[in-house]
Protein: Major facilitator superfamily (MFS) profile domain-containing protein
Amino acid sequence: MAVVNIRDTRESAAVSTSLAYSPPTWTWTSFPRRYLIAVMAFFGVFNIYSLRVNLSIAIVAMTENRTTIHANGTIGYDQDFPWSSKEQGLLLSSFFYGYITTQLLGGWLAPKMGAGKLYGLGILTTAILTLLTPLIANIGLAPLVAIRILEGIFEGVTFPAMHALWSRWAPPLERSKLVTIAYSGSYFGTVVSMGVCGLLAEHLGWASIFYVSGTFALLWWVLWFVLVKESPQEDRFIDRSELDYISNCLGVTANQHTLNVPWKSILTSLPVWATVVAHFAENWGFYTLLTQLPTFLSDTSDLKLDKTGFLAAIPYLAMAIVVQCGGQLADWLRSRWRVETTKVRKIFTCGAFVAQTIFMLATAYTHAVTPAIICLTVAVGFGGFAWSGFSVNHLDIAPQFASLIMGLSNTVATVPGIISPMITGYIVQNKTEEGWHAVFMISSIIYLSGASFYGFGASGKLQKWADQSSDPATFLPPKAASPKQRHSSRKRTENKKKKG
Structure:
C-alpha cells in the first residue's frame, strides 16, 4: 500500500486505511458493539419520532365531531377540544419552537458531558412529559403548547449527540450504513405510531396514545443506559479485534474537550451550507406530511381514523425500507467500486430530491385518495436515498465538529417544522382540494431548490479548517499493517480466545 502523504486529505487516508483493515468476522454470539449501538440508536430514534408524531394522530380524535343523542331526543355534536384550524396548526408546530433552541447547545454539550448520556437524557425527559400530556391537555390549550415546547427542548439535543457518538464509533466506510440504520428508526417510528395510534384512539381513546408511547420510551432508556458506552475504549464487552479495527480506521483524534471551534470557517463554508440547505429541503416535505397527512386524508376522504392512520403510515414504511437500502448501497459504492464520497453524496441527495419534486407535483394534480397515496409513497420513499447523502455529510467534512455542524444544520432544518404546519393550516382552512394542491406545490419547489444548491456546493472531503492538529500526523490513521502483520495479529487474537 502506498504511503499516505502528510498533505493528503484525511478522508483519503481514512478510506485507504479502512480498506486495508478488514472488519472482523462476527456471529450472533459475538455481535459487534458498533452495530449494537446502531440498533439501540434505531429504537431511540423510533421513540423520538413516536413521541413527536403521536399528537398528529391524537389531535384528529381530540377535535372530531361526535354525534350525541340527548335525553329529549335531539341530536347534537360534541368535541373534546373545539380548537380552530389555526389553533391546531399552532399546537402541532409548538414542539419545534423548543426543538430549534437546543440544537447547537446539544452539539456543544455532547463531547463535554458524554454523547450517549445526553442522547438518553433527552428521550427520557420527553417520555415523562408525554405521560403527563393528557392531564395537561384537560387544563387548557396554553399549558399543552408549553409542554410540547418543553418536549422539543429536550429532543433537540438528541441528533447532535448521536453524531458526536458516531464520530467515535463509526469507521469511515461504514458511516452510511451505521447512520442510516439508526436514522431509519424515525420512519419506522412514524409508521408504527400512525398505525397503532389510530387504533388506540379509535378503541381506547386518544389519551392511551400518550401513555403507550411514553411507557415504551421509558423502557428503552433503561436498556440504553446499561448497554451503550461513549467510546469503544470504554466498552468492557467489546471484542479486542473490533476495538483494534475501529481504532485503526479512525486513528488518533484530538481531544474534543480542548478543540478550538473554527466558527468563522464553519459559517462561511459552502459544503456546510450545502448540507444545511439540503436538510432544510428534506425536512420541509417531511414535516409537512408528518404533521398534516392524517388531516389531508381526513379532509379529502370519508375514511375513519383507524384507516386514516394506516394509510398515512404507508409512505413512511417505504422510506424506512429505502433508507436501509440506501445506506448499504452508498457504502458499497465507496468500498467496492471506489466511487468518490462527494459523488456518492450528490447522486443520492440530488437524485432523491428530483424524484420527490416530480411525485409531489403529481400528487398536486390527483383527485382521488388511492393515486395520491401512491404518489406520496414514491415521493417519500425516494427521500430515503437522500439520508445516505446529506445526513452523513457532517462526518465526512469535519468529523470532530460533526455534532456542532449537525446542530447548526438541524437548527435551520427545524424551521419547516415551525412554519410549515402554520402555513398549511392557513392554506387549507376551507378543507378544499385546491388548498392541498398548493401545499404540495410549495414542497415541490423547495425540493428542487435544495437539489440545485446541494449539487453545486456539497463536498465529501475533509475540510482544511477541520484539521487543527499542530502535528498533522496526529490526525492521520496509523500506517496500514502488512498482510503478514495482520495474519499474526489474528493468530494472537485467536490464541487469546482459546486460552480464555
